[in-house]
Design a protein that fits this description.
five-stranded antiparallel sheet; alpha+beta; 129 residues; Aminopeptidase; globular
C-alpha cells in the first residue's frame, strides 16, 4: 500500500495537467519566469537562466522526500510553474503540498486552485490521506 504513495501519475483537470517533473521541463520553467522578483520574492529560489532551471529540477528530483510536478496549462500546452508533494508519511497517512510557484500570467486564473484540487483529490480519495 505505501508504494502507491510514491507513484506519481499525471493528473489532469480542465485548466491544467500536472506532469511528473523531468529535466525536459527546465526550458518551460525558465519561460514561465515572467517576473522573477515577484515570483521568487518569498523563496530561496531564483531562476534567471536555463542553468538555474536545470539546477532547480535536479534538486527537486534528487530530493527523496519529494514528488515534484510541472504545471502545464492545457490551453497553451506550456509549463506555467511547479508544485510538489513532500513530507510523505504513509504510516501516518499524511503528506504536504508545496514548493509551488507560478508565472505571474498564470496567477489569479484558477491554475493554482485546480492544481491543488488535483493533488488534494489524489491524496484524500486515492491514497486515503
Amino acid at each position: 500500500m505505501s508504494e502507491s504513495w510514491y507513484r506519481q501519475p499525471t493528473l489532469e483537470g480542465t485548466l491544467v495537467r500536472l506532469e511528473p517533473l523531468t529535466m525536459e521541463h527546465a526550458p518551460g520553467l525558465l519561460a514561465a519566469v515572467d517576473d522573477a522578483e515577484a515570483i521568487f520574492r518569498w523563496t530561496s529560489v531564483i531562476i534567471e537562466e536555463l542553468a538555474d532551471a536545470e539546477a532547480f529540477v535536479r534538486a527537486a528530483l534528487d530530493d527523496s522526500d519529494r514528488l515534484p510536478y510541472a504545471i502545464v496549462d492545457i490551453r497553451t500546452n506550456s509549463v506555467v510553474g511547479t508544485t510538489s508533494y513532500y513530507g510523505i508519511d504513509p504510516a501516518h497517512r499524511k503528506l504536504v503540498i508545496g514548493y509551488t510557484w507560478l508565472s505571474r500570467a498564470a496567477q489569479g486564473t484558477g491554475v493554482n486552485a485546480e492544481s491543488k484540487l488535483l493533488l488534494l483529490r489524489r491524496a484524500f480519495e486515492e491514497l486515503g490521506a
